[in-house]
Amino acid sequence: MRDQAVELLHKYLKTEYLRKHSYAVEVVMKALGEKLEPEKSDEWAIAGLLHDLDSDLLDYKNSEEESRLHGIKAVEILRKENFGNEYIYQAIKAHDEYTNGVKRKTIMDKAIYAADPITGFITAITLVYPDKKITSVKVKSIVKRMKELRFAAGANRDAMRSIEEIGIPFDEFAQLSLEAMQGISDKLGL
Length: 190
Ligand SMILES: [Fe+2]
Hints:
Layout: H1 2-12, H2 16-36, H3 41-50, H4 64-67, H5 72-80, H6 86-94, H7 97-100, H8 107-128, H9 139-147, H10 157-161, H11 170-182, H12 185-188
Helix pairs in contact: 1-3, 2-3, 2-8, 2-11, 3-6, 6-8, 8-11, 9-11
The structure holds fe (ii) ion (FE2).
Fe (ii) ion binds near residues 52 and 116.
């Protein structure tokens, strides 16, 4: 299942940093899935990997109408490709409620909503370390940077903190996400 998901990712998503972002969300989701819904952790990983599948195909900047299709279009592609299931589709659509209006319902929806921004946030923190290596990053700097609202201002603190709604304290989430991303540092180029 994962091989096919990677194939689809490479077929539709050409932008390098978006692919890296997708791999990062994949490993964070996998780790969260193993904790919260172990029997479905492969689906959690796939949802993470493919959540931004349509990002190269929609003109977010110039078309409000197209930006509202984020997630919806990704699911359209996956249906056409005969890949995935309704649980995965729902999480992909609900990962960005602000653009398409699809509400978060399942525990996986809630997890991906928090996992998406924390990957960019950890990347931004890594890049201000002197050696720019993710293996040097400490959980306590993630926690500290959460309070510095001017740092990586685009990273949605409320979304990241909403992980607590599904029973994971933020510090634990930060640690799990950091370790997951450290495990694929080469792939992330960090
Ligand atoms: Fe994303």
